[in-house]
Amino acid sequence: MIEKGRISASQLGKILYMAIIPTSLLTTPAITFKYAKQDLWLSPIWAISGFITVFIVLRIYRMYPSENIIQIMERIGRRIPGKIISGIYLLFILYVNGVIVREYSEFVVSSFLHTTPIVVISGLMVLVCAMAVRGGLEIVGRFAELFLPIFITLFLFNIIPIIADLQWSNLFPIFGEGIRPSIEGAFVLQTWFSEMIIASFFLPFVADHHNAKKTLSRSLLAIMVTLSVSNLATLLLLGELTGNYSYPFLILARYINISNFINHLESLYMIIWVLGAFVKICVFYYVTVLVAAQWMKLSNYQPIVYPLGLLLLLFSQWVAPNTQVLTEAIAGPVTLAMITMFVIIPALLLCIVWIVNRLHN
Amino acid sequence: MNYRRKISFILLALMSCSLLLTGCWDQVEVNDLAVVTMTGLDLTDENQLELSVNIARTSSQQPQENSDSSSGQLTGKSVILSTTGNTLAEAVSKLQQQLSRQLFWGHNEIIIFGEKLAKEGIAEHLEFLLRHPETRERANMFISIGSAKEVLSLAPQIEHYVADDLLEMAKLQTGLNITLKELMQMMISKSQAAVIPCLIIETKQDHQQSYPFIHGSAILKKGKLAGLVDSSTTRGIMWARNELDRGTVTISPENSEGYISFQLLSSSTEVIPYIHGDLWRITLRIHTLDDIIENTTDLDLSVSKHIEELEMELEDDIKRRINKALTVAQEQMNADIFQFADAFYRKYPNIWKQNKDRWSDIFTKLDVVVEADAKISRPGGTGKSILKPNQE
Amino acid sequence: MKWIAGFMIVVIVILMVIIEWQKMSRQMKREKTAFIVLVISGVILAYLLLLFPDVPGPTQLIDAVYRPITNILKSWITER
């Protein structure tokens, strides 16, 4: 096997949480608000693709405990079609990671470092991530484990001081126009929930595999709760203004004011963002490297870490010419593509595998 | 020993990090910044926007404070600059040309609009402030009677900067305390009406420098100044909007001479909308807790019966004030500054949707019921007035 | 400005090759080929993006593929 390291199930759960939450925390309130209005905090509950993905991943894991989804596709699709499909997946994951790197840098540039070229910010992040990924699975797992408590503490530190400023009346009317707006708002969120598929790439390396089911459902639940809380806090503070800001959650940090003394805390949010984005990029980077190495049947993935990093950096510049195009793409085609690639095709795969197994018996 | 070496190594590593954290291209030293503490926006006679800023003087060569004791003591702490332009962004860029340092808006705590500008509309200028990544959502908003520039150029009264003076005044909540975020929320709310505290300048008397203070409030409709209201009406607005935290209420009881003053300990206002057919009604339910701080009447306040009567009187006073504010808002201005529209929307979203176009008609005829519930908790340090032994 | 970026790409690639090449042992032929292929594709893409920054990217491809579905979705989902 290509990866010699092992992680624990709880580490996997932390990896998943840290791989999904950071970017969603930043942009979801604004995007969801456009469709769901004051029901935006209910939208994360419609995590349909999250449930489906977790179900698929666990089912396939039970049948092939030592392989990930793409390896199984290659196996089912035989030589050439299998290679083509997994090649497409490789490019798609690289692309998704490019989008993540771009989102990270766009935020840093637009909110803090206005004159720094975006390539420099992306490049430095990719470099740091490359070092971590080169260290292997265990390093990535430990980073997730190390940063999660810091992340959550700072997240709470962002929300608790603001409680006094929250206006609960912003919450109403709940289901003012029925249940539909909240479901429509949940559409974009499926992008993040479908990312649960990355569990499939880590499960073969989990040492205590009997805990897998528990840890996956737990982290999905944690993600739903976190998104709901962050959406709720933004709504209660900003009300109708939520949709007008590009990064509403940042405003929360800016609005903190404890007895006129502790204020101007947006740097706190910056810490959350950099920590979270680091782990998120690392996880996707690791998956890219792993898939690429398996695709090319290498015995060691370390040599291709840096070249893939270069490609990743280039993709991050290539995905969109400006922020608007990026946001529009995420709200539309990218979400659809992610649902197809991470939910629908794996679901089909599960059906095929199931039928094949039935026929064999 | 080994442990100590480890610690010092970690500390060294952490410290060396700070050298790397200056931020590539965006490296800014504190002594390259011009910290804006206060912004004033006016309209000139040529219909141009005039931007005035109060910049804190942060350099070490501050004028010695005690060297000239004759003129204002602390005026040397800030610099006032102003430019004009068609838009706020243009004025800001012109301002930057006049400065040796980079403008920094992160500490801009006060934004003042001149009365004349407010009449023309402030919405488009708020756009720049919201889009700018440095401005604070917590900045306090004011409208000044007269020009805003004048307020900026005044000398601070107690604090180091005028901005601090105004900020503390707003925080005390004897007048309205409206932040940029709240103003924006009011302006994009269903009612599109907003209320901002007003600043007036107390003119120079004898030894006292002239200084600004909060007095009354201004009502904006769709971003334009619709009218000014006085202090006592503002109090009514604050009751209705649930913004009153502190303050003194003085009443004169019906059946005795003199006055009784109460200090407000807490107050909360519930807005209860009700729609039945064509009847739109708002019930304002006010709960307040007060302490007695002064009594010049003949009433003996250690008697519980008198306290009950006083509670009634206080309730009547609250109702009177709120009704005054309501009359101004409903009949004179027709501006829903209490955000009743949103209250209706929250409770009756569907009915609201059908009727939102005729809201201003509904609002003028809106039936508002005020229910006040005042509780007097303590008579203060003295029961019977010491100076009036024959109180009943 | 462009020539600086072009130069930087060369520097990055050279650094990458120097660091990684010596770490690979003689038996790792497959890895070496993969490494070279990836580096070359990276360099090509880098110069492509440098010289023609407006070259259509993967987002346009995905957009084109999903255009029909996006339109259907837009008729269902409305901004409020």
UniProtKB/TrEMBL annotation, chain A:
GO terms for cellular component: membrane. It is a multi-pass membrane protein. The chain crosses the membrane at residues 12-35, 41-61, 82-100, 112-134, 146-166, 186-207, 219-239, 268-292, 304-320, 332-356. Keywords: Germination, Membrane, Transmembrane, Transmembrane helix, Transport. It comes from the Bacteria. InterPro entries: Spore_GerAB. It is found in: Membrane. GO terms for biological process: spore germination. The keyword Transport applies. Belongs to the amino acid-polyamine-organocation (APC) superfamily. Spore germination protein (SGP) (TC 2.A.3.9) family. This is Spore gernimation protein. It comes from Ureibacillus endophyticus.
Automatic annotation (TrEMBL), chain B:
It is a lipid-anchor. Residues 1-21 form the signal peptide. Residues 26-199 form the Spore germination protein N-terminal domain. It is found in: Membrane. Keywords: Germination, Lipoprotein, Membrane, Palmitate, Signal. It holds the Pfam family Spore_GerAC. One of its GO terms (cellular component) is membrane. Gene3D superfamilies: Nutrient germinant receptor protein C, domain 3. Residues 216-380 form the Spore germination GerAC-like C-terminal domain. GO terms for biological process: spore germination. Its main location: membrane. Belongs to the GerABKC lipoprotein family. This is Ger(X)C family spore germination protein.
Automatic annotation (TrEMBL), chain C:
The keyword Membrane applies. The chain crosses the membrane at residues 6-22, 34-52. It comes from the Bacteria. The keyword Membrane applies. Keywords: Membrane, Transmembrane, Transmembrane helix. This is Uncharacterized protein. It comes from Ureibacillus endophyticus.
